[in-house]
Amino acid sequence: MKLVAIVGTNSDRSTNRKLLKFMAKHFAQEAEIEILEIKDLPAFNEPEEKQVPQVVAEFNQKIAQAQGVI
C-alpha cells in the first residue's frame, strides 16, 4: 500500500513529524509511507502568471497517486 503522510508544520521540533517518521519505520512491512513536508512549499501567494509552482504540482501529484493520506 502506498501512503503519503503530510507534516503540517515548519517547526523543526514537530511532534507530528516524529510520529510520522515512527509510523513509516514501524509499518514499513505493511505500507510504503512517504513523508511530505509543507515547509518545502512556497507560502500561499497566487503567482501573477497563474501557473502552479513545480514543487506544488509534484506535491499534488504524490497525493493524487497515493492510496491514502495521513
End-to-end separation in angstroms reads 13 Å
The helical percent reads 25-40%
User: What are the secondary-structure elements, in order, as H or E?
Assistant: EHEHE
- Total of helices: 2
Oligomer: single chain
Total E-strand runs: 3
Output the structural class.
Answer: alpha/beta
Can you tell me the overall shape? Answer: flat
Q: What Rg do the Cα atoms give?
A: 14 Å
> How confident is the prediction overall: mean pLDDT?
91
Strand content: 15-25%
Biggest beta sheet attributes: 3 strands, parallel
Q: Low-confidence stretches at least 5 residues in length (pLDDT < 50)?
A: none
Main sheet: strand order: 2-1-3
Describe the structure.
The protein has 2 helices and 3 strands, in the order βαβαβ. The model has no long low-confidence stretch (mean pLDDT 91). The protein is α/β, with parallel strands linked by helices. Strand 1 (2-7), helix 1 (15-26) and strand 2 (32-37) form a beta-alpha-beta unit. The two termini are 13 Å apart. It has helices at residues 15-26, 54-65, and strands at 2-7, 32-37, 68-69. The chain has a 3-stranded parallel sheet with strand order 2-1-3, with helices on both faces. The protein is flat and about 45 Å long.
